[in-house]
Amino acid sequence: xxxxxxxxxxxxxxxxxxxxxxxxxxxxxxxxxxxxxxxxxxxxxxxxxxxxxxxxxxxxxxxxxxxxxxxxxxxxxxxxxxxxxxxxxxxxxxxxxxxxxxxxxxxxxxxxxxxxxxxxxxxxxxxxxxxxxxxxxxxxxxxxxxxxxxxxxxxxxxxxxxxxxxxxxxxxxxxxxxxxxxxxxxxxxxxxxxxxxxxxxxxxxxxxxxxxxxxxxxxxxxxxxxxxxxxxxxxxxxxxxxxxxxxxxxxxxxxxxxxxx
Length: 261
Description:
- The chain is an alpha+beta fold.
- Helices cover 38% and strands 26% of the residues.
- The chain folds into 3 domains: 2-53, no CATH class; 69-160, SH3 type barrels; 166-242, Alpha-Beta Plaits (2-Layer Sandwich), CATH 3.30.70.250.
């Protein structure tokens, strides 16, 4: 029974790591190592095999930044205690600046952590990314969360209003059930049609969209934008270039002399 409990803990930690729930400090890795040390060797080996082969459709991107552990814990404490804080926040391309915040709640969405709450200086509800917060200082003032306020719903709506550079529409040659199994709602809107599945998404960079489409493996037709077409062509050429590379020699292997020389 204890083994089952430990396995459940490790699987939970693996899921947290893959989804991006972990913070900048390697807390999940250390916790996994501690649990594995007390497991019987055969069970630990089988669990390692699961970790090496498991896949999660909602895993975070490889370059998704993580918040500091201290930031996550401090904001969680402030939200529970209903204490106003001052955060040092870095907007894109700017130096950190102080912001006062009544933190209503923490939200994890699409590989990122957010805090949402009332900004007393602007008199409006704001949403901030935790990985852009450099410091959290507790204040003396308290606050009350509005009755019925939904932090998750507010973050989803606020992110939906963020302008993106590209509006993308692609017709996928597959059925809706398969598309939904491979593409989460947070990534794209999917609509079944007579010719396949219409994918609608927004993107800041078309390269990431091309990589996702290539990874799906289904034939597709670009509806818009026209700029997506040369992006697909360039990515295909890049992959073709990889195929033309000669195989690398193993380290230390010498080349046999030409017998005709």
